[in-house]
Amino acid sequence: MQFDAPKRRGGNSSLLPMINVVFLLLIFFLISAKLSPPEPFPTEPPHSEAAAEAEGEFSVFLGAEGQLGFRDMIVAQGEDVEPLVGALVQAREEYCATTDCETDPAHLLLRGDQHVKATYLAGLLPKLGQAGFAKVELVTTRGGAE
């Protein structure tokens, strides 16, 4: 009894379709991911009962010791905040150059620590207002005080 030799698959079976799918998935996840810069220092936001999520284009961080951070710039409490305000103004102008800020003004998120004194925060808000943002929102976490 003689058996036929098994049929060989062509050596041309291509991995190209699978590679295409992997690259398409990679591109999809890169586009859909929201990349944000890391926090310059850790903050523990205050608690509130607000149900709305704060939204904004720029984030300023306010630490427990009063340090202020924006992107890669950190200003300690008691230091002049004008360089940070200047960086905010420049970032807002760059944003408004590509977006219509007249109809949709830029918003600033203030990610403050819950241990910051309210008097310091109240004194800081007018200085942040000099940067020309239409709205400054304090970021909080949902839930009651612990």
In short:
The chain has 146 residues and is an alpha/beta fold. It is built from three helices and seven strands.
How is this structure best described in words?
By secondary structure, this protein is α/β, with parallel strands linked by helices. The chain has helices spanning about 15-30, 80-100, 120-130; strands at about 45-50, 60, 70, 75, 105-110, 135-140, 140. A hairpin with a 2-residue loop joins strand 3 (about 70) and strand 4 (about 75). The protein is elongated and about 100 Å long. The N and C termini lie far apart (about 85 Å).
Write out key terms for the chains shown.
146 residues; alpha/beta; 3 helices
Distance between the termini: 85 Å
Query: Which bin fits the share of residues in helices?
Result: 25-40%
Radius of gyration: 26 Å
Q: Could you give the order of the helices and strands? A: HEEEEHEHEE
Strand content: 15-25%
The total of helices stands at: 3
Content-based structural category: alpha/beta
The strand count comes to: 7
Given as residue ranges, the uncertain stretches (5+ residues, pLDDT < 50) are none
Average residue pLDDT = 84
User: How many strands, which pairing sense, and closed or not: the largest β-sheet?
Assistant: 5 strands, mixed
Task: Give the SSE map.
Layout: H1 16-32, E1 47-48, E2 58-62, E3 68-70, E4 73-75, H2 82-98, E5 107-112, H3 118-129, E6 135-138, E7 141-142
Parallel strand pairs: 1-7, 2-5, 5-6
Antiparallel strand pairs: 2-3, 3-4
